[in-house]
Design brief:
By secondary structure, the chain is an alpha/beta fold. It is 38% helix and 16% strand.
Length: 382
């Protein structure tokens, strides 16, 4: 179709959603959207069964300790706040990478400003694996309790060496928290093999659910302080939150439609396989990168890191202007700083921001061809 939306902004949220996701969310809203854990009637029990099914799928996807070690939160950002504020105590030291999203930087910065913790930033972008590990080792202190790192950046396709970082953390008795906002549904993640203590993830990006839910997974030996407290249908006559998972951190009514959407989204990812999805996205990345590198007015950032996300700028045009011009042609990309002050400082784009293209499993070569044709036609502006 001539006017079909060319959507290449999947790092923000995946679109379109699989038909199975839409169908199940609609079915939930129309036939079984009861409140799980808030009664013994059939709709409440059916809701609880769907939620547990989703926990099981997540558990298998990331090789978590048990389904009970996975709890649902409103978003990945919420989950990262819960991990950060729940794991740390007065006097603790934290390490974060130079590519972190503001969902990591801001809660860490706030705790530091309040005098509760100290933190350091280790070098990641444009470094070899050994240089990254050396930077981490040089900043570890006796009080270092937690290392937080994103798996893949949200402004380019740089991936941290997660297995090596996890092994290092294990050797130094430092807990390892992984932000999987841009990697889950794209890459294999194994909590046991990679020595990951905490994971936070969204439902609506690489797992093709809808907005409104995320999850945190923790290893059984780790216990987090609660971020908020309230009702969850368990031990309602007691004034304290329960000690056991997942109810300790699931407060209030869970977003059932978003959770059942996530459940179906994971099934779609499993059908296609991570290998197939990653290969497809990298192929599109290479076509776009190579095409952009052949346009004199375009600067491509970190082009050697191949994955689902690519950032660029066009000479004499702001990132916002580029995306506005593309939108006029039904092409959707993102402009700006992508909520990553550290990442743009590391990439050298903190003054300009970037135009970001990010692929999902529904993108095609036609999308890339359309984008390249539009950018080639911007010569009149430059």
């Amino acid at each position: 179709m001539k006017n079909r939306i060319c959507y290449i902004d999947n790092a923000a949220t995946s679109f379109p959603k699989p038909k199975s996701v839409i169908k199940e969310v609609e079915k939930c809203l129309s036939t079984y959207c009861g409140n799980a854990g808030r009664g013994s009637h059939r709709l409440s029990l059916q809701a609880a069964n769907k939620i547990y099914e989703c926990r099981e799928l997540i558990c298998r996807l990331i090789n978590a300790k048990a389904p009970e070690n996975i709890f649902f939160v409103p978003s990945c950002s919420y989950g990262l706040n819960l991990i950060t504020k729940g794991a740390l105590d007065l006097g603790d030291h934290v390490l974060i990478s130079d590519m972190e999203h503001n969902s990591v930087l801001r809660p860490v910065r706030k705790l530091a400003d309040e005098g509760i913790i100290t933190f350091d930033i280790f070098d990641c972008l444009l470094k070899s694996d050994e240089e990254i590990l050396t930077s981490i080792k040089s900043k570890i202190k006796p009080s270092t309790k937690l290392l937080i790192c994103n798996h893949q950046s949200n402004i380019c396709s740089f991936c941290a060496p997660i297995c090596k970082i996890g092994e290092l953390c294990k050797n130094y008795n430092v807990s390892f928290a992984l932000d999987t906002a841009q990697s889950i549904g794209h890459y294999n993640i194994d909590m046991q093999e990679m020595n990951i203590n905490y994971i936070s993830a969204p439902a609506h990006k690489g797992l093709y659910g809808i907005q409104g839910a995320g999850f945190v997974a923790i290893n059984s030996q780790n216990r987090l302080k609660t971020l908020i407290e309230g009702g969850n249908g368990i031990y309602s006559l007691e004034a304290h939150m329960p000690d056991f998972l997942p109810e300790r951190h699931e407060v209030g009514t869970l977003p059932l439609p978003a959770i059942v959407g996530l459940c179906e989204g994971i099934k779609e990812v499993n059908k296609r396989t991570l290998h197939e999805i990653t290969a497809h996205e990298r192929n599109l990345f290479r076509i776009l990168r190579d095409g952009l590198l052949n346009i004199d007015a375009v600067t491509v950032y970190a082009p050697d890191f191949e994955g689902s996300t690519l950032s660029f700028n066009i000479k004499n045009l702001s990132a916002e202007r580029v995306c506005s011009l593309l939108d006029e042609q039904n092409i959707c990309l993102r402009a700006g700083f992508h909520c990553s002050a550290l990442g743009h400082a590391s990439l050298g784009t903190k003054e300009l921001g970037t135009v970001r293209a990010s692929f999902g499993m529904f993108n095609t070569k036609n999308d890339v061809d359309k984008l390249l044709l539009a950018i080639n036609n911007f010569k009149k502006f430059v």
